[in-house]
Amino acid sequence: MQQLKIKQQQDIGLAKNGKEINVMFGGRFKNYIAYVVTTCSLVFGGFFDYSTLYLSGTMGTPYVKGNQVLKNDYNYTIGLRKIALFPYQSRSRFYKGNESSLADKAVIGAVNGWEYLFKYSDVRNRNNEFKDTEVWLKWSNDNCVVKSKYVNKESRDLEFAELDIRYRKHFWFIDFTTGLTVKGHPVYGHPAIEDYEGFWWDLAYEYGYEDNLVPVTDLNQNGEIDNYYIFIETDPITEEGYWEMYYEEADFFWTDADSNAVAYSDAEFYEYHLPNIVAQYNEDNEIKEYQAELYQVIGLDILMGSRETRFYSHIWLNVFPQSYGLTDKSYKGKESQYDIGMLFGMSLTDNIGLFLEGTKASFYGKNEEYISTGVNWRF
User: Fold this and answer.
1) Beta strand 250-255 with 210-215: parallel, antiparallel or unpaired?
2) How confident is the model at residue 42 (pLDDT cuts 50, 70, 90)?
3) Closest by alpha carbon to 331, among 277, 284, 287, 276?
4) Closest listed residue to residue 105, CA positions, set 125, 86, 120, 92
5) Which tens digit of pLDDT belongs to each residue from 21-41?
6) Which residues pair with 263 in a beta bridge?
7) pLDDT grade, residue 3 (50/70/90)?
8) What sign for the dihedral angle of Cα 33, 37, 38, 44?
9) Which of 325, 299, 375 has its CA nearest to residue 105?
10) CB under 8 A, 24+ apart: contacts of 212-216
11) Percentage, residues of the chain above pLDDT 70
12) Phi and psi torsions of 44, nearest 5°
């Protein structure tokens, strides 16, 4: 009986171990199959067809004025891109990582299907170090455009993620789009100081500043602020006159946490030092949770001409007229949100051409503008 019991326990143990191995192996095997299927679908399904993987690095000496000492600037970039060219564009033989073709910002691409950009840059510019990330993935056909995007530009203190779904209507050389966009981002437009309940001098006290009451007009020169009556004589012969209450004026002398004098009046402190304290308070009390809004979006894309027609024009416009806050601290700025771009080129002769290009965007009260124009003369 004891041997039978031991054998049964061994059988049960083997069954348990076998079940655990089977579950563990089955789970890993399922994940492996899913990984293989996904990879094969992307690789052999055309997702990476015509895409370009690039690595680049640049380094240079920054502009220096006077005795200022600066480290060398650098820009290291890795990226993967699949963006079809418009008829007016010429293909670059190499990607250096600093390309900024304005046409890449247009919602409507040159072809339907998948387009994407994955780009990461590690940059130092005049001793300022930052990392910029831009990722977007777009799919389109004749009736619909879907685009997801993530941007984190430390160089501009701008970060957001969005999902853009639009209906598309094409006629002649114009594409009209409309739909909804969901955007997520850190808190913008809600500085922490708006929720501060104390007085401005209370905030200064919290950061180690102290004020000392000092007389501005000390008639009796006792070093204190007094209120007293002064006799005003109106007739020196009769010595007639009247008594008037006099208030000695006072102000505040401000020192920092190290007892260094920083301001000799409230007005001076308020104007020159309080803004820095408020900025530090906003940074120290920044809300880390992502906020979100739902936007109505209207887009217009106009494309005419090509390099062979001696003239081309590409204009796009995206406007977000209505927004609906989805979180407590969602952006409620009054500034309009929009993205405008324009590319224009004209060949005057076989060798001389003009070009004009520019963009203007405003998101969360942060504006970005770019414009370039010139003449090309090809010998």
Assistant:
1) antiparallel
2) low
3) 287
4) 86
5) 444 444 555 555 555 445 545
6) 254
7) very low
8) positive
9) 299
10) 212/252, 212/253, 212/254, 212/255, 213/250, 213/251, 213/252, 213/253, 214/250, 214/251, 214/252, 214/253, 215/248, 215/249, 215/250, 216/248, 216/249, 216/250, 216/251
11) 74
12) -95, -5
Condensed to tens digits (0 to 9), the pLDDT of residues 298-308 reads 999 998 876 66
State the Rg of the chain over Cα.
34
Q: What CA–CA distance (Å, rounded) separates 250 from 211?
A: 12
Beta strands at 250-255 and 174-185: parallel, antiparallel or unpaired:
unpaired
Q: In what order do the strands lie in the sheet with 210-215?
A: 210-215, 250-255, 261-263
| Calpha distance 132→239 (Å, rounded) | 82
Of 291, 313, 289, 293, the C-alpha closest to 301 is: 313
pLDDT at position 5, please? 43
Q: What is the mean pLDDT of the chain?
A: 78
Query: 197: which 2 tokens?
Result: 């309940």
Q: What is the pTM of this model?
A: 0.62
Alpha helices in the chain (DSSP H): 2-44, 200-206, 266-272, 274-284
Using a 10 angstrom Cβ sphere, with 0-12 exposed, 13-18 middle and 19 or more buried, the burial of residue 333 is middle
Instruction: Locate the DSSP E strands across the chain.
Output: 52-60, 73-82, 113-125, 128-140, 144-153, 158-171, 174-185, 210-215, 227-235, 240-247, 250-255, 261-263, 291-306, 311-325, 337-347, 352-363, 366-377
> Does domain 52-190+287-377 match CATH 2.60.40?
no
Q: Letter for the amino acid at 195? A: D
Cα angle: 248, vertex 219, 225; to 5 degrees: 40
Q: How does DSSP classify residue 53? A: E
Of residues 289 and 177, the one with the higher pLDDT is: 177
- The residue among 189, 75, 83 whose CA lies nearest residue 126 is 75
